[in-house]
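Allow me, if you will, to draw on your knowledge of protein folds for a short while. I have a record of one protein: its chain in single-letter code and its fold written as discrete structure tokens. I remain grateful for any guidance, and I place the record below:
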Amino acid sequence: MRVAARPRSFVRVAGQEAEAYLNRMVSNDVAALGPGEACEALLLTAKARLIAPLVVLRRGHEDFLLLTEPELGERVRSELQRYRFAAKAEIELEEHSCQVVFGGEGIPTATYGEQAAEVLDVPRDETVSAEELELLRIRAGQPAWGKELDERILPAEAGLEERAISFTKGCYPGQEPVARLHYRGHANRGLRVLEFEGELPAPDTELELGGKVVGRITSAVRDGDRVVALAYVRREVPEGAALELAS
């Protein structure tokens, strides 16, 4: 079995009004989850800028566990605590171990382009390196916090609408601009997987087409003699266009 480390922070939201409160705060419909089910969601600012990507696991009727990036646990806890007011919900950090298990059962993840799950508190010997895991993620075109995802990014730009946003549930912070872009417009840029020869480019290296800057590299790894990268590229650039790294 192929197993990789997956560092996480964890925030528990539990209590009589945990479901209703979370549904008012995150982008996906957590009320639709049954015990043991999970979904991706986003915690956003009122202007739909990203605070944190989440995986929401419903452990019981009144008990949810939020999985987020290691550096974002306290931010998520404090944001949820800040707006809790009189809602009957406990919000606190928890400690767990987490690994990605390929072909195994657990919390499903689409991040690596093949069947995989995040498994909590069942330590296994790790057989997949961080470098191999990163290559799988980039080839699958999936965004990561601190690389493709930060406070500058709108969900539609990173391709998060289908997996982490419900357009049928009630309001949440950022809902109005998210819906407006979805129904009335389009993102000006999107993520693309690139492959080329040469040196490994630094993050934020600009991409040019015909001498004009049309995008930027966000992640890159070496795969044999070639480089595989993720980049934000302007929407009007044709697929398959020969992009050049800015000098």
